[in-house]
Request: fold
Amino acid sequence: MRDKLLGYLLRALEPDEERELERRLSIDPELRRDLELLRRSLEPIDGTTASYDPPEGLAKRTCEWISGLADVVEKNSSRYEEAVPSEDAASLMSLRKRYEASQPVDLTAPPARRWGWADATVTAGIVVAASLLFFPALASMRYQSRVVACRDKLHRVGMALIDYSRTHGDLFPEVPHSGPLAHAGVYAPRLQQARLLMDASDVVCPGQARACAQFENIPTLDELEHADSAALDKLTAKMGGSYGYALGYVEDGSYHFVRNQSRPHFALLADAPQDHALGSLNHGCGGQNVFFEDGHALFLNCCRRRDLGDDLFSNHSGFVGAGIGPNDVVIAPSAAAPLLAPHKTVR
Reply:
């Protein structure tokens, strides 16, 4: 089981392997201790969030560097041996032969090779080169595993939104234009009321350890409607979890809720933006997972889809608010309201 601890921390295990390891962790204190030690050893790279591709030809250049280092060390060793006086060299050789003769001989063992300074230096070079390659790769693997784990959870919540629309006249969870429910994060209480969320933590990105620890529960619609101003601000700020949700749109002076049309280009849910100009901080400003209306999810490095040019986190006027027309996608953080002024609502 210990060989799976690193995979567990990187979220790289299969579901059945993860469940079995968690079962063993619950009954084996030594295994839990080993997991904690391994977790601490990874803390120095915990803040590494970006993913980088190695420069072209890096592996070849590294091997050539190590090979060249071996040649240099071998030449220097030969020069040293030439500089040693012959009588000293003869004495050292005689001493070595007497020592070898005093050792038991294993006739089945392969011939031994002397471990010299050249070997030690080359080995040290290989270790250094391997560490330069390994730790960035490990950090990148950890980052990618968090992105994938977050996307999987986002996809599950997105499919719950689609299931909701199928039983509500093709409408996704409504974000009204005014009142205590007029906040993007209201999608979560609506899904919870419809029993489409298995757990409150479903709306928290796995890569956000602090957010997971601080997130307690999703408020009910009744709690939102009867909360005072101060309590409502606290509830609406967190109820959407780590994800942002699509606001409705304005057309012909009326506010419309988002209707399920299975559009492959219409973003419905995403890692919540902290600043619509910068995107989400869920993955260190490296991009965001996005769930689209037709049921597929992608990781986008920027706030715009290149094929559409539509900013995911602001409307065509450059504001965080209701879209300008039915195809203007606006993914807003939990507390965001769609409108500042009342409009007639059309379902």
Notes: The chain is about 45% helix and 10% strand. The chain has a mean pLDDT of 76.
